[in-house]
Amino acid sequence: MAEVDTIRKHQLEAKIKEDKELIKKGELRDENPLDLSQEFTEFLEACRKGNLRRVQEMISAGININAKDEFDYTPLVLASLCGHYELVQLLLESGAFCDRGTWVGERAVYNALNNKIRNLLLSYDYSKTTDPLQPWSSHLNSLLTKQTPRTSDITCHAVSGASFELHRFFLAARSPYFFKVLSNHPEKTDYRFAAEIPTDAFNAVLKYIYLEEMADVVGPGKPEEEEKKIFAAIDTLCKRLGIEKLWESILAKDRRLARQRFEDEVRRAQAQVEDLFRNTVVKHKMVVDVDKVDLVRWPRQNAMFADCILRADRQQEELDAGGLVTSAAVDRIPVGPHASVSEPAAATGRGRKRCVLYPVHKAFLIRAPYFETMFSSAFKEAQESEHLHIIRVDCSPEVLEIVLTFLYTEKAEIPLELAMDVLYEADLLFLDKLKNKTAQVISTLGSRNTTVVVNGGESVEAEPINVYDVIKAAWDLKVQRLEDFVARYLADRLEDYIDEPEFSDLIQESANRIKARQETDTIELLDDIRYYLDERFRLRFEDAGVSDMIEQNSSQRKPTGKETSALEEEEAVRQGASEEPSPYDLGAGSVVPANEPPAVKATDEGAVQTLDGNWAEDEFDAHVRDYEILLDKIDALLQRLKLDA
């Protein structure tokens, strides 16, 4: 068995010192930079408190989740130390570093509040902590060799006779020279370099443009004179194409420095693609009457470099007249770098059903297995034609733009109100990563809501999502994360849901999911709700001995769960009339967090009102009784449904 090659302490100290010197010189990027800004301080505070919604919002806004404060605390270390499992999971999925070979990674594991978090951190060790843009860059790199489906639309020829099948949109995004040439001549499908450029130099430049790591540019066994010729040709190409950063990647010998420069280049390419995507696909989208779609003719040689069109119908008829495209305008195709048809033509009528057409590129669409299969098959959409094929997608334009943004840039800013639609569309296109991102948005942004007490004392819950729709989507699409989220969501608010007819129907549906159900079979959703309900009450007070009180009271509890202790009776007698409303009842317009333990009403003497309107000795006792009441209601629900679980 081979011995594990370990680094001795003095070697590690020397490496750390060398890295610090490189960081000080600006040659190496600090992966955990110091951040004393007010925004990052708020982010750390949200991580301390476990505020999932706020953390998700700030991550979406682009905050650096690997920065640290003046005490060397990173968001991951704080979330781990404070015991917020879901938050730790969110940070790891968003790209937080957890390498046990570093001080920060080891500290997060060592300070984990419990084994559940520690095991999660260990499972996300360096082997799983990857660049979130790696799938995106790998796809672009694979375009150089991908034969099926065919996505290239321009051929570059060298004087040596070598030819390269490339992509106009991506070349225009990465090279200012190609952007100028192709924008002014959108009909160009062949390009020849006048100068004699060695094939190896072409290969090196194309590897850089298409985001392949620059491990060995020249290759082994080349004579020195030939190497000089290749490097001179690379320098010529870099100056002509406007990609001077290539030399930084070639000259980076240190592995860590080379990795950081490659990651920087991938992010630069992402920004370039996003900019061109906004200025072509989004800017030049067309709003057309549905009955006039067949009149649209887009030539293959167009200023957006598009090779197909996606159509998304608007869900409702628009009553305003703006944005209707006349029959004389549908044939107007942009032919120059500044042409645009995104502005609506003169109005022709009211109340017509419309759709939106997006000029898109197969090279990015095939990131979705749905489109890759479509363009690789014998379907009409895969065949060459004089004009671009129009492909209808079953979603709204807003949802399609989110999907396209993800396919082009790997970014996904998903509003909660569109999350369910995006979830279904991602499943339709087999985009598992977008599906997981959407589930993450739903389970974080939808995890908090408020209960508003209106006039008359009636509580109205302002839900950010419909939890019943979420659980049915989780079942249909097999998203375990959403199933767990709904179970926890319902357990945290069970007193608000358990008496609703929809909740009974949900439990019945969960029971019916088991085919040939037997008496010994459990109900999965109800089991999960019981688990999180137990966690909600017991874990909060396990150090206060409340668990023993629950067990003791449960053994004496009658089936009805309506008994009253002697202390409560004495309190009722002393108060004179327990039916009278408490002076401490919440007034109109009050707002309380709905995911806190059950709202309790207390008197100056310390008595607390429970869910059934009786009075408990203190808050601890009230939570014990509330727990029993909710369990009783679950048992009663099962009896009504004639279910054993």
Automatic annotation (TrEMBL):
SMART domains from the UniProt entry: ANK, BTB
PROSITE patterns: ANK_REP_REGION, ANK_REPEAT, BTB
Highest taxon above the source species: Eukaryota
Transmembrane segments: none
Keyword Repeat on entry: yes
Repeat (ANK) residue spans along the chain: 71-96
Positions of the BTB domain: 152-210, 358-416
GO cellular component assignments: cytoplasm; ubiquitin ligase complex
Alphabetized Pfam families for the sequence: Ank_2 (PF12796), BTB (PF00651)
Keywords, comma-separated and alphabetical: ANK repeat, Repeat
Keyword Repeat found: yes
Span list, region Disordered: 550-604
InterPro entries cross-referenced by the UniProt entry: ABTB1, Ankyrin_rpt, Ankyrin_rpt-contain_sf, BTB/POZ_dom, SKP1/BTB/POZ_sf
Name of the protein in its database record: BTB domain-containing protein
Organism (species): Coniochaeta pulveracea
